[in-house]
Amino acid sequence: MPDLSILGTLAPYHILTYGTLLGSNVFQSFVNGIVAFRTLPRPQFSSLQTAIFPIYFSIQSALPVLLALTYPGAKSALYGSSSQQAGSLAGFFAEQNRWSVLAPLAACFAINFANLTYLGPKTQEIMRVRKHQETKDGKKCFDPPPHSKEMQRLNKSFGRMHGASAGLNLVSLTLVVWYGVVLAERIQ
Fold first, then answer.
1. Residue 147's closest CA among 161, 125, 130, 126?
2. Which residues fall within 8 angstroms of residue 110, CB to CB, at 6 or more apart?
3. Strand ranges for 70-152 from DSSP E
4. How far apart are CA 75 and CA 81, in angstroms?
5. Residues 90, 81: contact at Cβ < 8 Å?
6. pLDDT of residue 6
7. Interval 106-122 mean pLDDT
8. DSSP state string for 32-53
9. d(CA 104, CA 109)
10. Fewer CB in 10 Å around end: N or C, the chain?
């Protein structure tokens, strides 16, 4: 039977938050997005992703903050057997945690917040303009070439924004995995 007094500490909430952050990133990146792309017609896939991404990047932005708030303190031989290293924000911002905890989680927050507030809306705006251009051209943006000069420009802009968003999402995933290794060291 587990010792339920652990529920009075930050540790279980930190682990559950970390699992949610990692799991939602892996699921959206490697399962949901791929299955939806392969299964749905392009317009429905686009509508689905347009609806999911703000929610996804909101969650991916909020969870690193929650990890900072639930950062568990630790008993340390360096401070004496009865001493504790600080938990929550004090531990998160502690000098000894600057590169192992603060840097990856702050970067993860910044990346996902940029996706939420800049790259996502910019990509959606390009998609709206591209839809209008499809009407003018009488041809879908994903139809085989040739395309109008404006559609070529819009497709290139979309590709850059989408590529930046996807690339940053993978950087975020790498940072989350790295933090998992740091967290595993504390459990060992």
1. 130
2. none
3. 74-75, 84-85
4. 7
5. no
6. 79
7. 98
8. IHHHHHHHS-HHHHHHHHHHHH
9. 9
10. N
